[in-house]
C-alpha cells in the first residue's frame, strides 16, 4: 500500500567511522569524494539508505561499495540531524563506527569515491559536511568504552602479546600505563587465553601469545 503526505520528508544516510592502528598510530579511513557536493574533499564513507534495507544494511553496503571493506563489526554511534548539514536537501545521518586490524582488509576506492586512504588523527584533512564532528564523537566514544568493555580487542590480530594489547590502549588514551597493573587486570577478566606459543621481539625474552575468547563481539566488563 502506498501513502502520500502533505509535509516534506527528510532523506536518511549512514556514515561510517573506521578506526585502526597502523604504524603505532590511531588512524581513520577516509574517502575522497568524486561527486558534488564537496567534490574532491575527504569524507567518511557513507551514503543514502535504500527504501528496502535497514540502516545497518545500508551502512555495510556503502562501506563495501566505497572502500572494499566488508564483514566488520559495526556499532551505532549517534544520529546527526542539523538542518543545514547537507546542501542538497534535509538529510539526517545515522553514524556507525568500527575497529579493525589492518592485516585483515584491503582497501580500494569504488563508486563515488575517487580515492581512499588511512589518516592519522593528528594529520586529518578538512572534512566534508559535519564529518569532523562525527569523527570527534566516535573518538570520544572509543576512549570511554576502553574503561568498561573489550572494544580494544577489535584492533588485535588473532594472536597477540599482552604488550601489544597494552600499546593499543596507550595509543588510544594518549598516555602510558603501568605494565604490571595492566597485565593483572586483563588476565583477571578471563577474556583471553594462552595459545601455547611465544613471540620474540628484539633482544627481549619471548612473550606469550594470547587470543581473545570471543573475538567477534565486544563484551561489557562487569
3D architecture notes:
The chain is an alpha+beta fold and 222 residues long. It has 2 domains: 136 residues, Nucleoside Triphosphate Pyrophosphohydrolase, CATH 3.90.79; 62 residues, Winged helix-like DNA-binding domain superfamily/Winged helix DNA-binding domain (Arc Repressor Mutant, subunit A, Orthogonal Bundle), CATH 1.10.10. Helices cover 23% and strands 28% of the residues. A hairpin with a 2-residue loop joins strand 1 and strand 2.
State the gist of this model.
Strands 1, 2, 3, 4, 5, 6 and 7 form a seven-stranded mixed beta sheet that branches.
Set out the fold topology.
Layout: E1 11-22, E2 25-33, E3 42-43, E4 46-48, H1 55-67, E5 75-80, E6 91-99, E7 113-120, H2 131-146, H3 162-173, H4 179-188, E8 192-199, E9 207-212
Parallel strand pairs: 1-6
Antiparallel strand pairs: 1-2, 1-4, 2-3, 2-7, 5-6, 8-9
